[in-house]
Specification:
Low-confidence stretches: none
Radius of gyration: 16 Å
Shape: globular
Strand order of the largest sheet: 1-3-2-6-7-8-9
Number of domains: 1
CATH architecture: 3-Layer(aba) Sandwich
Strand content: 15-25%
Mean pLDDT: 96
Helix content: 25-40%
Number of strands: 9
Number of helices: 7
Largest sheet: 7 strands, mixed
Structural class: alpha/beta
CATH class: Alpha Beta
Length: 220
């Protein structure tokens, strides 16, 4: 099991958000935002912020950093790290199973992520055969898209997907996010897609909408 930063409510947690960070960051990246939102108490929700394993990353000259999988180049012309993506997928499944073992039903769990973490969240949610409260992918894309048709198991009528992306993102191009959205929709899933005037990150106009979305998905 991965090392995680868990932000707990005062009483028993009845809901959970598993939030995966981006390349080179760690679970502490989104801790200030989560604490500022105050949703742990409002929703009786546990926020699980895992730390990705450390590994060499090709696109960064082989530098060792926290990464969910290797990235060969930003245009993906050299292929994808299929083994690494599947390993990250299993890590997320293990985290979901841990929340279920702690008494939280899958339909009360949101999986979320930023950039590479959002890619893992999308990949896993579409292949997860049990209901989820929702999946949130920020500044991200769909990895291993060529396998989606054969592997997707989530109920298209039950899975709620939100994707947010900056229209001037220099890391994950906006067109790649649009293509990912279209591929998911082609499988019968509905995607709530939000375009923001920003680069690779979050912007102030986005934050209230994200908080409201989590409240809607997890209930009051």
């Amino acid at each position: 099991m991965l090392e995680t930063l868990d932000i707990e409510p005062v009483g028993a947690a009845r809901r959970a958000v598993i939030w995966l960070h981006g390349l080179g960051a760690d679970g502490y990246d989104f801790e200030p935002l989560v604490r500022d939102w105050g949703l742990t108490e409002q929703l009786a929700a546990r926020f699980v912020l895992p730390h990705a394993p450390r590994r060499p990353v090709t696109v960064n000259g082989g530098m060792v950093m926290r990464a969910w999988y290797d990235i060969y180049d930003l245009n993906f012309r050299s292929g994808e790290d299929r083994e690494g993506i599947e390993s990250a997928h299993q890590h997320l499944l293990d985290l979901i199973a841990r929340e279920q073992a702690r008494g939280i039903a899958s339909e009360h769990i949101v999986v979320a992520g930023f950039s590479q973490g959002g890619a893992v969240a999308l990949h896993t949610a579409l292949r997860f055969g049990q209901p989820l409260a929702g999946v949130l992918a920020l500044s991200s894309y769909l990895p291993l898209a060529d396998r989606l048709t054969q592997q997707c198991r989530a109920d298209p009528d039950g899975l709620v997907i939100r994707m947010d992306h900056g229209d001037s993102d220099p890391v994950v191009p906006f067109r790649l996010a649009e293509q990912s959205c279209a591929l998911i929709q082609a499988q019968g899933y509905r995607v709530e897609f939000h375009r923001y005037a920003m680069q690779h990150g979050l912007c102030p106009d986005q934050l209230p909408s994200l908080r409201d979305w989590l409240v809607k998905r997890l209930g009051s």
